[in-house]
């Protein structure tokens, strides 16, 4: 069996240098790092996790809290996070949770039974005991896609991004704009505030009946939300702002089923810019979240917190972009 000393001998470096590469530490020449990684792959070297855990007093396990009905954006995000965590030498445990108190309590119970070095939350938790446990235990944690005031987070400016998305519709002459939004999540509330602020900037009233809140962020929920809006007010709108791309796609499906053309009759804006948004019919106008950077920053932030428990990480508010495609058009 190949050992760390064998790898070090072949590259002409010390075992400690090889160890730094394996553990994702800095201060290793990029060329040397590449050579070590190449040899590790060629020889099939596998670090002895049990021995490494005893020496470093770490489990090299990270928990990721994700919703039990996650959408495409969340699926892409946790794949990126997991890949970067693996590059730092961690293996991941997934904790699926529903948006209800009983499920959150069960998730917390399962989490307490594991020896974790850290936790990443993709799902927004409502139970304050959940956060109290993380803080009281001093367990390194990072929230991603949403913010919590006592835990570092990685996200975009939700309110401003939504404001810009709705302003795009207003600039095209739309005034009757509906919204399909996620229920029970803070970023949904922030995106709703951005929606209302954009309307207010155009002198339009705050009309809560133009927003429908759905239980998940999927295309199926988008279909449900659009049907609900049609039942409420018929075709008294010319545009829809959806809180996620999948909600937007469900919205478009129902509109087309009803013989309403997009964008000729109704314009639609989404949020996230998942990969399929560029291939939908019509191609979706949306707010692009920096998915790759978000995943990388989340994993790096947690790794730094684990390695240095005294380090204080600041929130990372990342830039977003309005991507204009074919699902929006000027009125008339």
UniProtKB/TrEMBL annotation:
Parts of the chain that traverse the membrane: none
Recorded superkingdom: Bacteria
Name of protein: LacI family DNA-binding transcriptional regulator
Pfam families assigned to the protein according to its UniProt record, in alphabetical order: LacI, Peripla_BP_3
Domain named HTH lacI-type: residues: 2-56
GO molecular function terms attached to this record: DNA-binding transcription factor activity; transcription cis-regulatory region binding
Gene3D superfamilies assigned to the protein according to its UniProt record, in alphabetical order: 3.40.50.2300, lambda repressor-like DNA-binding domains
InterPro entries recorded: HTH_LacI, LacI/GalR-like_sensor, Lambda_DNA-bd_dom_sf, Peripla_BP_I
PROSITE patterns linked: HTH_LACI_2
Keyword list, A-Z: DNA-binding, Repressor, Transcription, Transcription regulation
